[in-house]
C-alpha cells in the first residue's frame, strides 16, 4: 500500500514569514527517506502555500513520483503539461475555503473535466479525481476514463473526531461500498483528507484502497516528533491495517 505525503503546509509555514525556510522540498526528501512512496503538492490558483518554483524543484530534485493536486483550469493544465508530474489529482477549489471542502461534482462538471482528463492522459500523466464515495460520482469518473479516484474521507474523520459515532458509521459504510464499487469498475482507489494514525490504520484494512495521501496531520505532529518519525509511524499504522486484512483473509480461507 502506497503512502503519499502532502507537503503543502510546510510551504504554509514558510509563507507565513516569507523567505525560504522551512523548505518544502527538503521536507519531501525527508519524507521519502522515512518511507513515503510519493509526494503530493497542491498548486492553488492563489498560491497560498505551494508555488510554481516548488513544483519545478520537486520535479528536478525528487527521486520518487510527484502527485500534483490541481483545479481543472487552463492555467493549471498548462503547468502540468509543462512540468509532467507522474500524477495529477483534480480537485475542487475555492478561494474562500481553508482547505478542500468536498469532492468534485464529476456528474455536473463532466463536459469541463473531459478535455482536461484527456489531455493529461495523452501526456502520460496519471489522472485521479478527488470525489465523494457516491456511486453516481464514481460512475461519472469511470465514464471520463480517469484511471484512478481518491475518495474524500474527511466527513468520516470529522465525525470520529467529534464523537458523532452514528454519523461516522454511516460514512464508513459509504467508503467501504464506494471503494468496492470503484474497484469493480476497474478504477484504482486512493483515499485522503483528515486521516491520522488511527483512521489510516482502519482504512488500510480495505483491500480495494491502494494509496493514502496524508499531509496536515503529519506536518502538525512533526512539530513535536520530527517529520521522519511521523512518516515512520504512519507507515507502521498502515502496515498494521494491512496485516489485519491479511489475517482476516487467512481466517476466511481456513474456514472455507
UniProtKB/TrEMBL annotation:
Indicate whether Hydrolase appears among the record's keywords.
no
Q: What does the record note on quaternary structure? A: Homooctamer; tetramer of dimers.
Enzyme Commission (EC) number: 2.6.99.2
Answer whether the UniProt record assigns the keyword Ribosomal protein to this protein: no
Q: What does this protein do?
A: Catalyzes the complicated ring closure reaction between the two acyclic compounds 1-deoxy-D-xylulose-5-phosphate (DXP) and 3-amino-2-oxopropyl phosphate (1-amino-acetone-3-phosphate or AAP) to form pyridoxine 5'-phosphate (PNP) and inorganic phosphate.
Part of which pathway?
A: Cofactor biosynthesis; pyridoxine 5'-phosphate biosynthesis; pyridoxine 5'-phosphate from D-erythrose 4-phosphate: step 5/5
Give the matching InterPro entries: Aldolase_TIM (IPR013785), PyrdxlP_synth_PdxJ (IPR004569), Pyridoxine-5'_phos_synth (IPR036130)
Catalytic residues in the record: 42 (proton acceptor), 69 (proton acceptor), 193 (proton donor)
| Family matches, as Pfam families | PdxJ
**Coiled-coil annotation: which residues?**
none
PANTHER family, per the entry: PYRIDOXINE 5'-PHOSPHATE SYNTHASE (PTHR30456)
Species of origin? Methyloceanibacter superfactus
Q: Which GO terms describe its biological process?
A: pyridoxine biosynthetic process
Q: Where does 1-deoxy-D-xylulose 5-phosphate bind?
A: 8-9, 44, 49, 99
* Main enzyme class: transferase
- For the site labelled Transition state stabilizer, the residues are 150
Family to which this protein belongs:
Belongs to the PNP synthase family.
Catalytic activity from the UniProt record = 3-amino-2-oxopropyl phosphate + 1-deoxy-D-xylulose 5-phosphate = pyridoxine 5'-phosphate + phosphate + 2 H2O + H(+)
State the Gene Ontology terms under molecular function: pyridoxine 5'-phosphate synthase activity
Locations listed in the record:
Cytoplasm
User: Can you say what this protein is called?
Assistant: Pyridoxine 5'-phosphate synthase
Amino acid at each position: 500500500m502506497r503512502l503519499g505525503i502532502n507537503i503543502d503546509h510546510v510551504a504554509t509555514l514558510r509563507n507565513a514569514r516569507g523567505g525560504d525556510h522551512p523548505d518544502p522540498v527538503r521536507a519531501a526528501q525527508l519524507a521519502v527517506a522515512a518511507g513515503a512512496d510519493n509526494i503530493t503538492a497542491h498548486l492553488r490558483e492563489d498560491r497560498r502555500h505551494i508555488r510554481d518554483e516548488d513544483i519545478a524543484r520537486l520535479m528536478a530534485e525528487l527521486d520518487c513520483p510527484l502527485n500534483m493536486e490541481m483545479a481543472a483550469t487552463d492555467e493549471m493544465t498548462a503547468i502540468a503539461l509543462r512540468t509532467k508530474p507522474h500524477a495529477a489529482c483534480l480537485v475542487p477549489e475555492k478561494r474562500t475555503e481553508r482547505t478542500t471542502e468536498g469532492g468534485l461534482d464529476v456528474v455536473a462538471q463532466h463536459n469541463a473535466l473531459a478535455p482536461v482528463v484527456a489531455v493529461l492522459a495523452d501526456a502520460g500523466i496519471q489522472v485521479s479525481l478527488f470525489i465523494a464515495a457516491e456511486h453516481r460520482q464514481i460512475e461519472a469518473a469511470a465514464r471520463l476514463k480517469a484511471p484512478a479516484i481518491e475518495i474524500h474521507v474527511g466527513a468520516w474523520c470529522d465525525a470520529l473526531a467529534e464523537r458523532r459515532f452514528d454519523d461516522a458509521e454511516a460514512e464508513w459504510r459509504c467508503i467501504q461500498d464506494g471503494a468496492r464499487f470503484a474497484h469493480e469498475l476497474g478504477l484504482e482507489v486512493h483515499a485522503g483528507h483528515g486521516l491520522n494514525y488511527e483512521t489510516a490504520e482502519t482504512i488500510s484494512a480495505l483491500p480495494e484502497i491502494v494509496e493514502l495521501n496524508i499531509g496536515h496531520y503529519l506536518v502538525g505532529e512533526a512539530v513535536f516528533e520530527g517529520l521522519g518519525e511521523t512518516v515512520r509511524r504512519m507507515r507502521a499504522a498502515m502496515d498494521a491495517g494491512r496485516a489485519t486484512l491479511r489475517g482476516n483473509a487467512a481466517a476466511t480461507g481456513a474456514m472455507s
